[in-house]
Structures are given as structure tokens and as C-alpha cells.
Design brief:
Radius of gyration: 19 Å
Number of strands: 0
Number of domains: 1
Structural class: mainly alpha
Bound molecules: zinc ion
Number of helices: 11
């Protein structure tokens, strides 16, 4: 937790010191403007809100594991070749917990399922906060919603990088270890965020006023900024590497290959999870649409430009 607070402070500091009109600053033109932290918050509140958003999401992720009884699911479906596969540890995926085969697939699937619950919970809570006039004035709703979503995605990206520990950042086609690669987690969680924000009712409640393209760009910019921070300050090379750009889930052949056993495994365990899941909206259950499945099996490359996904 202390580390996450430091990350929030360091991240905001890093972003504020990006030189204006330099090469990095110019990369932001892709997103339509060069604003890197939401102006509706003071410098202090930017750090605080990022920290709280990240912590809340992590807390919801843990609730997601508990709600769906992932300890039991891992023991039943995935314990084949690894001791301890039925325990859920999130703080760092490392080489010591090098799960392989079915145990790795089940572990990854349950992580993605907990992510999905967490993102859903987070957005529902965010909306509850936004629509309460005691917290947010009506005319500020839209701007604050966008600011909080942006900071949440910055925080979430940093959490994924931090938890990835010493594991490589570039995705591999074979599920290995306990946790999915951070880039893959982002590529699944980002569309989940903008899909929810794009729902008509949610749009009205939050008053965010962004069209779909603007939503995709807002989410993409947050993740890009966090990736910039991480690659320029935490990697051995200390420079931005465009392999860390989130380009959209269905544009990377390695990710497509990775997803084949993941989707198959989720289909196998989903009926059991539906039976034992303790509470929660059906929207919290990880879902792969038919269109999405078709793309994975055909392994075609689709989607244009960063962060686009149409499922
Ligand atoms: Zn987890």
C-alpha cells in the first residue's frame, strides 16, 4: 500500500515534468490534447484520487476472487501439476510460482474473471458517487467522471505493472505463471471500461458527454501515460518502448493465440461459477461475445489503430 502511494506521487510528478513541446509531449496529439492529468482536481487531489482508485480496484478484485470461490475453482480444475494453485496471491507474480499447463490457464482465467468483477464494481461505485449531489455538483458531474476514470486507469495500469514483478512485460502466447501479462490484462479491462461508459443509461447518469471515439481515446491516453511512466522510470532501458502500447485486444497474433485456451477454460468453469457465485450482477461475469470468439479462432487481425475493439 505504501508502495502504491509512492507510485501515485511519483507518477504525477513524472507527468508534470514532461517537457512541453518535446517529443513525448507531441505523442499526445494522437489523443486530441496534451492534458496528462485531469484539471478538475488540484495537484494533491490528483495523487489522492489516483491512489484511492487503484486501492479500491484492488480491493474489488479480491472480492471478485472470493465471490466466485476461486480457491475452490483452482483446486478443482487447475491443481493438476502445481502445489498451491488453489491459493490466491496477488501481490506479485514471480518466477517462484511458475505454474504451467492447466494450472496456469485456470489461474489466469480466474485472475481475468476477478478483474472483470472489479472493473464492473468500480464503475458502479463511481456512478453511485457521481450521482450523489452531496459529493458532486450537477454541472461538474461529467468532468469529474472523466477525471476519475482517467486516474483509475492510470492507477490500474501501474498496479498491473507493479504486480508483474520481474516477469517480462511483453506478452507470451502460452499462459505461464500465476497472473496474466499486464498488457493483456489492460487490453481486456480497457474495453470493459469504455463499453460500460458507452451504455446509454450510464452516459446519462454520469453526464460525461463523450462519444465512443472520445471514450476510447480517454482510456487509451490514461494507459499510455502510465506505460510511459513505467517504461521510462522502472525498466532497465529507462526509455519508452512502443511494444508497450496498448493496441487493441484483437490486433496482436500472440494475444489471439493466448486467448484460445483461456476462452475454452472459462466456458468449462463458468457453469460451476454461476452455481456457486455468492452475489453480484450478471454484468460482473467475464463475457466473450460470439464475434470475439470468432476472431480468436480465425486468428485474423482486425481493428484499426490503438485501443480499438468492436465486440
Ligand atoms: Zn487476483
Amino acid at each position: 500500500m505504501r508502495q502504491m502511494w509512492r507510485d501515485a506521487e511519483n507518477f504525477c510528478e513524472f507527468v508534470r515534468t514532461i517537457p512541453a513541446n518535446g517529443d513525448v509531449d507531441k505523442l499526445y496529439d494522437f489523443y486530441g490534447d496534451r492534458e496528462k492529468l485531469p484539471k478538475c482536481f488540484s495537484a494533491e487531489d490528483q495523487v489522492k484520487n489516483l491512489f484511492i482508485a487503484a486501492m479500491t480496484w484492488v480491493y474489488f478484485h479480491e472480492i471478485g476472487h472470493l465471490m466466485q470461490e476461486h480457491g475452490y475453482i483452482r483446486a478443482r480444475y487447475g491443481s493438476g501439476n502445481a502445489q498451491g494453485a488453489n491459493e490466491v496471491h496477488d501481490c506479485e507474480s514471480n518466477a517462484e510460482n511458475q505454474l504451467t499447463g492447466t494450472a496456469a490457464v485456470v489461474s489466469h482465467v480466474t485472475e481475468l474473471a476477478a478483474d472483470f468483477e472489479a472493473t464492473n464494481f468500480y464503475l458502479m461505485e463511481l456512478i453511485r458517487h457521481i450521482i450523489n449531489p452531496d459529493f458532486v455538483a450537477e454541472e461538474k458531474k461529467g468532468e469529474i467522471s472523466c477525471g476519475l476514470v482517467y486516474l483509475m486507469l492510470c492507477g490500474l495500469s501501474i498496479v498491473f505493472f507493479r504486480f508483474n514483478g520481474s516477469m517480462p512485460l511483453v506478452p507470451s502466447a502460452v499462459p505461464q505463471g500465476s497472473h496474466p501479462n499486464p498488457m493483456i490484462r489492460l487490453e481486456i479491462n480497457i474495453p470493459h471500461v469504455f463499453e460500460i461508459l458507452d451504455i446509454k443509461g450510464i452516459r446519462e447518469l454520469t453526464g460525461h458527454g463523450l462519444d465512443r471515439k472520445q471514450l476510447v481515446l480517454l482510456c487509451g491516453k490514461a494507459v499510455f501515460t502510465a506505460t510511459l511512466y513505467w517504461s521510462m522510470t522502472k525498466t532497465a532501458e529507462k526509455k519508452f518502448d512502443n511494444r508497450f502500447m496498448v493496441r487493441g485486444l484483437l490486433t496482436n497474433p500472440v494475444v489471439l493465440e493466448y486467448l484460445v485456451p483461456i476462452v475454452k477454460c472459462w466456458d468449462e468453469i463458468l457453469p460451476e461459477i454461476k452455481k456457486i457465485r455468492r452475489f453480484g450482477s450478471p454484468l460482473g461475469l467475464l463475457t466473450f461475445t460470439d464475434e470475439f470468439r470468432e476472431r480468436i479462432t480465425k486468428k485474423e487481425i482486425w481493428g484499426e489503430g490503438p485501443e480499438s475493439r468492436k465486440s
